[in-house]
Amino acid sequence: MLDKNQIAQRIAKELQDGYYVNLGIGIPTLVANYIPEGIDVTLQSENGLLGMGSFPTEENVDADLINAGKQTVTMLPGSSLFSSAESFEMIRGGHVDLTVLGAMEVAENGDIANWKIPGKMVKGMGGAMDLVAGTDNIIVAMMHTNRAGASKLLKACSLPLTGKNCITKVVTNLGYLTIENGAFILRELAPGVTIEDVKAATEGKLIVADDVKEMEF
Amino acid sequence: MLDKNQIAQRIAKELQDGYYVNLGIGIPTLVANYIPEGIDVTLQSENGLLGMGSFPTEENVDADLINAGKQTVTMLPGSSLFSSAESFEMIRGGHVDLTVLGAMEVAENGDIANWKIPGKMVKGMGGAMDLVAGTDNIIVAMMHTNRAGASKLLKACSLPLTGKNCITKVVTNLGYLTIENGAFILRELAPGVTIEDVKAATEGKLIVADDVKEMEF
Amino acid sequence: MKKVVKNATEAIKGLENGMTLMLGGFGLCGIPENCISALVKAGQKNLTCISNNAGVDGFGIGLMLEQRQVKKMISSYVGENAEFERQLLSGELEVELTPQGTLAEKCRAGGAGIPAFFTATGYGTEVAEGKETREINGRMYVLEEALTADFALVKAWKGDTMGNLIFKGTARNFNPMMARAGKITVAEVEELVEPGELDPNHIHVPGIYVQRIFKGTDYEKRIEQRTVSK
Amino acid sequence: MKKVVKNATEAIKGLENGMTLMLGGFGLCGIPENCISALVKAGQKNLTCISNNAGVDGFGIGLMLEQRQVKKMISSYVGENAEFERQLLSGELEVELTPQGTLAEKCRAGGAGIPAFFTATGYGTEVAEGKETREINGRMYVLEEALTADFALVKAWKGDTMGNLIFKGTARNFNPMMARAGKITVAEVEELVEPGELDPNHIHVPGIYVQRIFKGTDYEKRIEQRTVSK
Q: What's the burial of A149, exposed, middle or buried (CB within 10 Å: 0-12/13-18/19+)?
């Protein structure tokens, strides 16, 4: 079983040199800590920054420079600043190579729900609907089951959708799965996890890839 | 009868302090020479400049600084530079206070034709269609009749339109007319011009304003 | 051409009960602090506020919520405000949640004379309910309409007396589009300079969009998540 | 992330017969001179060129017209070119005239993921023929579709090796929108600098939109109307 950092670490292996990447809040943010050596990746923050650096030192904290999670950040050589309209031109226009975000539910047809639980206070979708509609390459980072033990990889989402037919990759604490032709394809198992474990935790249609293997880091 | 410079001079009297103005090629360009004392006007050039100055001196000619007529120009304190998309956001969004442009024909319903003569080589509409659709306050500057002596103030335009129902003011060599409720209203006569002269030169419905007067400069 | 006003109170003259406002900012970054203070003092009610977020308890639009000045919020994310939640649950406050990119584009469209546009964002979700959808080049899109406002209240870093604006860092966010979409746009700036002091090539919002401008005071610039590294 | 190429010839690798190109510039101001020269040398045919103008005889896109490389122009104004006129009248060349603001917005939409938008421009004219029109808030509008291109060829003043671009004067014009709407965007720049040398707050086109960049040479920058005052 993977912990949150290991999920992030596995996702980081999907990064390619030159990628522009938007990382959501939570596990996705941790991906930035595992960018492989020799791979040059530019992080996009949807509030108007391309080329996001690390957190500032105490002396360099600038209230006018935050990320989409409202955290103080820094810029890097080659960064650019822009408006929210421009930021979502990038996102909606398909210029971001990879989006990593969390989810409450993912369905076997690629639907995703991650913004609203009926009966609970609604906070809003922020930029998530634009990100899932605008990026071709999306990886969902999440636990395989919720706190009650119920599967989050479903036949159909029960919660209000964030986007339809848009998710193709899911990395959970149990493994790495792709979504193809209406099914979850189990590609890699987390260390110590069996195919039976994944089957038990997956409500949606699950196909075990012929070449399923243990995840490498 | 007015010459081209006098037409421009009369139009310049319509300028108000603080106006943002787009001047078309030809007579409209001359309006800039007659901006009244104490009136602060900012000229917009649709290729991406707000706050257009005069022509440069020989030493200051810059190939990277031209106006929409492709003439070399200068900037003024407070000028701003922007893209063509931004420029037409201003125009289409109704932020320009006044547009002055030439026309081949204007109709009593406010239609204008100024870009294409069937059978002649088409040059294109440039920004004219955006300007007439985007600005509320448009003054047409033109001769009352064409070279063949035919009226250019018509019941209906015969040439392909640039815009529908958009023109409300026309200044010609014969006078100043507004367009209201499907008719040309003669408001001012050029010096030496009679009401009969205007009637004879106007094909469209013409109403002589009760308070018609001689034009003042 | 007198755009310069003395302060926020003068700048929001004519801003009346029931009006629709745009307020720049992302979280508490780049919000028009002075205008919000003046609004809280003036006490206009039944306002519709278009703003990506709704402030926090005790700061930003949160201050207006405490005074019950807001009838409706049009935002993409409102999760940082307990008073907001209370008013929403009690039915005092209405909220129209809009995806962040769609919100930005709706404001941009409002200023740009584009009454409506298609976007893939929100297709198949409750955001698209009641809206026209259509297939274009094999993909489904939702028709979204432009937003405009009676007053747009924006905050810039530098501005000149002709209304030209330059923003700093990520405090730009929604401010430029909102500046373009206000019938009356009020800009508060940290530094107000004379025409010619700003490089024409660096201006983010040309002065044509700005009707009133003033030098703001006492910026608090509260930070929501102070994250540091060693 | 290797965006820097040696020259225009390398930059247009993969640009093939029959492709759709966008070329920045207004008149001869801000045109990608080096890319056009390379195209003329390489000799691709049947190109669809999206450009506000069509150059003049002997310069700009005029050079491509002389080599019969252009099948179709999408422009707002083409009146400065006798060879253009000859080819159009003889039926060798097709032209799609588009209002300048609509052309700019169509390019902008293409890069921004907006497949179509409504505009009042052209309503009631032949530009609207065959297009959907509708009334929105009491006014009539035309539905216009986005433009994209296989290659966008743009010219900037300064650029860095990550593809960030800054333009100069009115040489900006159509270049920024076209840079965003190309599947492959090639930027030629007068000065190519290292990341960090351009102020992040002054960048007109963020590098994410630019796939290839090179330092251009021998800019002629021909002036169409040299107007001077004393």
A: exposed
The secondary structure of C29-45 as a DSSP string is BT--HHHHHHHHHHT--
Contact D175, D154 (CB under 8 A): yes
User: Domain map of chain C by residue range?
Assistant: 8-100+147-215
Cross-chain Cβ contact C116/D136 below 8 Å = yes
Percent of chain A with pLDDT over 70: 100
Contact between A42 and D162 using a beta-carbon 8 Å cutoff: yes
pTM over 0.80: yes
Distance in angstroms (rounded) separating the CA atoms of residues B211 and D26: 46
* Contact call for residues D79 and B124 (beta carbons, < 8 A): yes
* The pLDDT value given to residue C1: 59
Whether A180 is catalytic is no
Nearest alpha-carbon partner for A52 in D193, C202, C169: C169
Tokens representing residue D212 in the block: 């290839």
Using DSSP's 3-state secondary structure scheme, residue C204 falls into coil
Q: pLDDT for B164-174, tens place per residue? A: 999 999 999 99
Paired sense of beta strands D116-119 and B98-101, if any: unpaired
Chain B closest-CA separation from residue D199 CA (Å): 17
Q: Which residues pair with B53 in a beta bridge?
A: none
D21 three-class SS: strand
DSSP states of B9-40 as a string? Answer: HHHHTT--TT-EEEE-SSHHHHGGGGPPTT--
Distance of alpha carbon B3 from the chain centroid: 15
The C-alpha atoms of residue A29 and residue B72 are separated, in whole angstroms, by 50
Q: Do C111 and B82 touch (CB under 8 A)?
A: no
**B107-138, pLDDT tens digit by residue?**
999 999 999 998 888 899 999 999 999 999 99
Q: From chain A, pick out residues whose CB is under 8 angstroms from the CB of C123.
A: 133, 163-164
Helices (H), D58-216: 61-66, 82-89, 100-112, 175-181
Structure tokens at B139: 């003054």
pLDDT confidence tier of residue B192, bands split at 50, 70 and 90: very high
- Rounded to 5 degrees, φ, ψ at A108 are -65, -15
Residue with tokens 């300064």: D158
Q: What is the largest CA-CA distance in chain D?
A: 54
Catalytic residue among A14, A37, A46, A86: A46
Characterise D168 by phi-psi region: left (phi > 0), alpha (psi -120 to 50), beta (else).
beta
Strand partners, A214: A189
* ipTM exceeds 0.95, yes or no: yes
Q: Nearest CB to C206: which of B76, B82, B92?
A: B82
**Residue of B40, B50, B75 with shortest CB distance to C206:** B50
DSSP-derived letter for residue C67 is T
The predicted pLDDT at position D1 comes to 59
Q: Which of D83, D86, D117, D121 to mutate to test the interface with B (most CBs of B within 10 A)?
A: D121
Contact D169 B129 (CB under 8 A): no
How far apart CA D82 and CA D89 sit, in angstroms, is: 11
Alpha helices in B13-144 (DSSP H): 27-30, 84-92, 128-134
> Between chains, do D160 and A78 touch, taking CB under 8 Å as contact?
yes
* A190-211 CB burial, b ≥16 within 10 A, e <16: beebeeebbeebbbbbbbeeee
Domain definitions of chain B by residue range: 4-34+96-214
Residue C168 with chain D: CB contacts under 8 Å: 201
Query: Helix H segments across chain C?
Result: 8-11, 33-42, 61-66, 82-89, 100-112, 175-181
Kindly report the CATH number that applies to the domain delimited by D8-100+147-215: 3.40.1080.10
Superfamily of chain region B4-34+96-214:
Glutaconate Coenzyme A-transferase (3.40.1080.10)
Cα separation, C184 vs C19, in Å, equals 12
